[in-house]
Write a structure and sequence with these properties.
The protein is mostly helical. It contains 22 helices and no strands. α3 packs across α14, α8 packs across α11 and α19 packs parallel to α21.
Amino acid sequence: MHSLLFVIVALALYYLAYKFYATFLSEKIWQLDPNRETPAVKYEDDFEFVPTDTPVVAGHHFTSIAGAAPIVGPVVAAIWGWLPALIWIIFGTIFLGAVHDLGALVASLRHEGRGIADFLKDLLGERAMQLMYVVVFFLLVLVSAVFVHVIAILASNFPAAVYSVWIEIPLAVIIGLMIKNKWKINLYAAAGIAVVIMYAFIYLGVHFPLSLTYETWVIILLVYMFIAARLPVWLLVQPRDFINGIQLIIALVAATVGVVALTAVGGGQLAAPALRVAPAGAPPIWPFLMVTIACGAISGWHSIVGSGTTPKQLKNERDAKLVGYGSMLGEGYLAVIALLTAVVGLGIAGYQDSYSAWGAAAWPAIWATGGSAFLVPLGIPAVVGAAFFAVVAKSFAMTTLDSAMRFTRIAFAESTVTFNLPEFMRDKTVSLIPGGIVIALLAYYQYGMTLWPLFGASNQILAGIALLAAATYLKTLGRPTIHYIIPFFIMIVSSMTAMAYEIFVRYIPGEAWILVFIGGAVFICGLGVVVIAYQTWQKLDKPMSEKA
């Protein structure tokens, strides 16, 4: 199989999925209603609930769910060969991930824009909500800790990308203020200018790189994420995510054109085998392929975004199809490109060196170096191409970092009501502190990419629960649930198995007790939600006379 065929197959199947399957789910299963008032309109508060134009919401949602995870996962999973990763990315996206994202978004829209843990109370009761808050909290701190590590690694290893990423912050704030003050600006032109400025700073970084240590970057990022999560959503999150959305489109187009150009000059052959069942030191291909590629096919993180900031910005329920299902297809294609950087861009010798054993692959270097190979036929020097791909990864990782910390604050503030905590803990600053402490501890102990399998398993447990929540809501409406129940069983069995493996095979023998505690808490609470859901479904299945 040739790299160009990867691209053609992925784009063709994603197009067909959106045209037919997404339309079926939107119109027949969820019955999206453009006349239904959305939470953004109903509860507008100029801080979290902000009715926003569809392109901006789509850009925010797309970049928030994408982040660097659909880059990291496929690159790491390439150790098992290109075939299993490609199958999981394409078909997982179409039948699990995009279905999951659409369901989480619509369910939140129909429950006043509340977070998934919060509206779970309406479906499964208070105890399920309490257990879900534990799962969500630990996933959010894991996401944040992982991406602090990811960004610090990128910044310390690719100093040429530093200026370009950080200049985006003031540019986004300026655009946010212009929109807020109702300046008559063309949003696409403004974002386009911002992207041009960012790319100009790549050349500055190549000639005058800013080199700081990994530890210094960790401290800077911890301070930054605390400040960014406290700002109104319109000031930084919305405009920067829109800029990143345009940047992502540019990156995907450039990589796609690069694959075509590479093919035209006789390149683009696969450097990796189709399948490697048992690479040295690697965990079993099942279930770990499905948790390693955590965001390139399906991700519980998306249910947090889809029930966090996105439903508080959507002006029209009909747009859930584009924002929910469509954005996931875009992320799936990003995962395909990431896979190609590893199995094509590195070349045969590069692949063999990087994937000689589990843990040998340095994903930032693979993504940047492998990606730059696609840009060389376009006349872009390898050093500039590598910096460009590093900017892409770091920009999306920064977006995830902002969103994760904001969602941690929102989830903790919501949970104070559930657990009867003092009202002052709902304050927008105070509610940042608990999550910030746990994230700082994980960063201090420098678990780094050791957290990735734990994050992946936790993430996919949440994805399974989110699918179950959507199915439960559909059941209460008397609509078909099979489109959600089958993906639920696939994800809950795979993720629970992976979590048990991590706890008993790796963490306990390695005396990683913090990770044992987090993994055990997520496993037990996730299982508890499933048990409660089973009991709830039994009651829903009873005839009306028995229910009475």
